[in-house]
């Protein structure tokens, strides 16, 4: 699931940020013609580069890779250069949910019979669609998968691949496959897919992983990242470790986004700024900050400044998925333009009184931002990272510590 405006490259199927044009991976224009797509798909290959023939993949891989960066399929089994694409697959324009021009790699089954497991799953979904009348008017008379065939006649096409061996492989694969990309007990490397400038000092980073997995992030929680800094006297690597909150939808598969403000003296933010697409960052998590559930409080108020907006976005995304929720936003800037009609200046006591619910046991006020904002609104967290004493504007208004949560 991508954010509004993000787009999929028609040539290499790379997911790009809204601001990027042409494609970050293959330089194909965002609104390319069919001829440009065909040309770019060929031109994108450097000597030795190859396209993955795995089911529903087609990723462009560099020559140095022995397995597909996106789905993990081995190059020797299902890798094809641009000139072999047309002859390697069979069109399936009539299959529900698949796009015109997509194709199925046949050689991967001929050389690697266990790949039939994936085609068996696909056949099941096609057969179910046929059985319940959701198939388009055009009739699927037959789909050839290398030496196998699936005839879409009700549920029977599912059983075309139901040999005992395939069932066993299917079950083994599902049991062994992780459900989430994150691991709370292990550092996992995530590859930088793309980055764009969000402002003069803030960058948006997209990291990719298995497109079949979700990140595994609960609302509201964060991840911790680390980067090597230097070696100590004993030769052991020392790391810089910082927490960050992804701003992408927790239900998104295959990627997560980080919005990071780059500080001149910030060790970790400078490290992120130096990354290039293809570089990796070690991540562990999730680390739960606040367990959110719908209607946990009658009213929830949020005060955020700078990149302190990131944990709030997680909650906002979850809240606005409820169409009956009545959400209001008050936005203030310290340097307004001539056409600005919102609030101006720093968040004041008067703004809080007018914009947030009054103190009550059934409300919760969330606060996150730089030290100046935290000290002014609620007081910062304690040195041991516990919530600490409530001070500032919220205490003056009458809020108590059980009504406020500091990220």
Automatic annotation (TrEMBL):
Keywords: FAD, Flavoprotein, Metal-binding, Mitochondrion, NAD, Oxidoreductase, Zinc, Zinc-finger
InterPro entries listed in its UniProt record: CBR-like, Cbr1-like_FAD-bd_dom, FAD-bd_FR_type, FNR_nucleotide-bd, OxRdtase_FAD/NAD-bd, Riboflavin_synthase-like_b-brl, Znf_RanBP2, Znf_RanBP2_sf
Subcellular location: Mitochondrion
CDD domains on file: cyt_b5_reduct_like
SMART domains linked: ZnF_RBZ
Xref: Pfam families: FAD_binding_6 (PF00970), NAD_binding_1 (PF00175)
A single Gene Ontology CC term: mitochondrion
Keyword Ion transport: no
E.C. number(s) listed in UniProt: 1.6.2.2
FAD-binding FR-type domain mapped to chain residues: 185-293
Cofactor: FAD
Domain RanBP2-type: 3-32, 46-77
Record-given protein name: cytochrome-b5 reductase
Organism of provenance: Dorcoceras hygrometricum
């Amino acid at each position: 699931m991508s954010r509004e405006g993000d787009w999929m490259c028609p040539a290499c199927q790379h997911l790009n940020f809204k601001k990027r044009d042409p494609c970050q991976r293959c330089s194909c224009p965002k609104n390319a013609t069919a001829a440009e797509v065909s040309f770019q798909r060929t031109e994108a290959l450097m000597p030795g580069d190859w396209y993955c023939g795995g089911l529903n993949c087609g990723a462009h891989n560099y020559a140095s890779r022995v397995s597909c960066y996106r789905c993990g399929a081995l190059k020797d089994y299902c890798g094809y250069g641009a000139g072999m694409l047309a002859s390697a697959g069979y069109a399936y324009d009539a299959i529900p949910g698949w796009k015109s021009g997509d194709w199925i790699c046949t050689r991967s089954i001929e050389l690697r019979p266990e790949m039939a497991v994936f085609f068996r799953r696909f056949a099941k979904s096609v057969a179910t669609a046929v059985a319940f009348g959701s198939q388009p008017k055009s009739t699927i008379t037959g789909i050839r998968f290398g030496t196998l065939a699936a005839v879409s006649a009700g549920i029977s096409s599912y059983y075309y691949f139901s040999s005992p061996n395939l069932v066993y492989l299917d079950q083994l694969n599902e049991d062994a496959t992780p459900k989430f990309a994150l691991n709370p007990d292990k550092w996992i490397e995530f590859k930088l897919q793309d980055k764009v400038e969000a402002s003069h000092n803030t960058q948006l980073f997209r990291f990719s992983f298995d497109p079949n997995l979700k990140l595994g992030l609960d609302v509201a929680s964060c991840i911790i990242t680390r980067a090597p800094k230097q070696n100590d006297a004993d030769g052991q690597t020392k790391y810089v470790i910082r927490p960050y909150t992804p701003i992408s939808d927790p239900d998104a598969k295959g990627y997560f986004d980080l919005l990071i403000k780059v500080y001149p003296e910030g060790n970790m933010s400078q490290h992120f700024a130096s990354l290039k697409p293809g570089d990796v960052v070690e991540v562990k998590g999730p680390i739960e900050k606040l367990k959110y559930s719908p209607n946990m409080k009658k009213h929830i108020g949020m005060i955020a400044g700078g990149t302190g907006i990131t944990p709030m976005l997680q909650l906002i995304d979850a809240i606005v998925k409820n169409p009956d929720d009545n959400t209001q936003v008050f936005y203030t800037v310290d340097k307004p333009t001539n056409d600005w009609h919102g609030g101006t200046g720093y968040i004041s006591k008067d703004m809080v009184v007018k914009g947030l619910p009054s103190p009550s046991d059934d409300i919760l006020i969330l606060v996150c931002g730089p030290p100046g904002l935290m000290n002014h609104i609620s007081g910062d967290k304690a040195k041991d990272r516990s919530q600490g004493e409530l001070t500032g504007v919220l205490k003056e208004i009458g809020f108590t510590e059980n009504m406020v949560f500091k990220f």
